[in-house]
Amino acid sequence: MNATAEKPHAFEPRLTAFVCNWCTYTGADLAGTSRLQMDSNVRIIRLPCTGRIDPLFILKAFERGADGVIVSGCHPADCHYTTGNYHARRRFALFKELVEFLGLPEGRVTFSWVSASEGQKWREVVNGATERVRDLGPFDAYRALAGSPVAPKVQEAGCRP
After folding, report:
1. pTM for this structure?
2. Which domain range does residue 137 map to?
3. Cys-Cys with 74: which of 23, 66, 81, 135 at CB 3.0–4.6 Å?
């Protein structure tokens, strides 16, 4: 049984996952088809390669209402585009410094490698990231600083920004 069903929480985080089409997306599919129980708080955005993910995508996810972000791709040396995950690894080493500068708590962004055969590992990544973000609480700071035009419209609709 998943963590959400075992104990009720007042706050359920929303996570956005940017995943590689060839490995992590297939691993997530394997977790689903294997009926592995995991938190359902993650919305997946499938990209051809993690090397394609711009750090601004992550900041935009927070601006648009994500409480946490997962970035996951092929293991090093297993990239279908040869070096895409190496580019992603270098890019996110630099992004970590930006995250610290912006004052984002470290647990809000998760970076992992999950292959197509690692459905169980995907489940662990999802549940771990969800629990970390749940412990941190809702993330409203970035949307408040950005002055996003999305937030007032979301509030008018009766939803949490």
Report:
1. 0.83
2. 13-156
3. 23
